[in-house]
Amino acid sequence: MSQVLIIGGGFGGVWSAAAAARLRYEAGVLPDDLTITLVAPGDHMVIRPRLYEASPEDMCVPLDRILAPIGVHQVQAMVTEIDTAARTAVVQMADGTAAPLPYDRLVIAVGSELVRPDLPGAEFLYDIDTLPAAVALDTHLKNLATRPAGPGRFTAVVVGAGFTGLELSTELVGRLHAIADPIGAADEVEVILVERADVVGPELGPGPRPVIEKALAELGIRQRLGTTLAGLDSESVRLSDGTTIPTRTVAWTAGMRANPLTSAIPGQRDELGRLKVDSDLRVSGVEAVYAAGDVAAARVESNHRAMQSCQHAHAMGKHAGRNAAADLLGLPRVAFTPDPYVTCLDLGGAGAVFTSGWDRDVQSVGEPAKDLKRSINRLIYPPVDNAAEILRGADYQSESRVPQPTGTAAKTA
Questions:
Q1: Are 273 and 281 in contact (CB under 8 A)?
Q2: Element (H, E) at 21
């Protein structure tokens, strides 16, 4: 009996498991002869790209509805150690007991985490990095209407004008109005975007920036560029330029890194802590270990590195899981070849912007792009309960489910 062990219950881990199960099925191998086990601390797959929206508690799918139909074992536990020499991972169960899990091939797909700042009052920061954190922010926002009126009650400060910060800040305008307007406090709603760089969306490049700046202006979002947070308390924030802003809501979105569990793998890493992998997604210099999703520094489209994104996590999972199973079944591996890179940035009530390529050429803006974003947010959910549909979705040769803009009006604002 051979064993594929997958660590992580996000996009990279779930699609690794499904791709391994698909190849096992195609090869006519029984589950008892090639076992596939997924370990994750929770029992749900979180649709992390949607946590900027209201009601984040709905943005998840039970793992057993994805894994059980395709014969993948699920272990709800935290991995605390990985011994690549002995080919075992130690898991800690909810009751505190620990046990080793052996593997013949390992896929590590434990995702990324937010880099939280060390500054006075950091305990008052909200974020949307995890489902519990996003739920905490949503609960806080809904409770604002019951709090005493005063300066900053419906002011939200978002720190970081990258992809996540832009989606959250533009969405917060509508979310805050939905809470403030019914109690006659519409004029109190204000969203302020704080960014260390001197432009918004610094990593998105100049292509979509005019669209983003227009959207921020349309929504009335104030920008504080070239500055960052110096400290905060429950009633205000202090910026690095000495400004104090009354607010009850401060969200931190600046900076991501690979999950620290990657330190258990003796491989080379990039500046984000991601494991460097070869074209088959094998961790360079480490036997029998693959990496997928936000922990893998994979090369894509010539000289680029994969982004910590849903799009690349989907594709990497399908390649890594398939290749891990292929090793054990004596079948050839396949090189990681994702679809061309695209982005679709939600801009709340101002629509969205859809770009293609690494230069992020704008293809669609406004409501046409918003329709694309809505479609993407639906399509990133994996099929459930139906083994045939789940295995069909795990085909590495058709990993993209991202719709494309159509028609001559695609760029109409």
A1: no
A2: helix 11-26
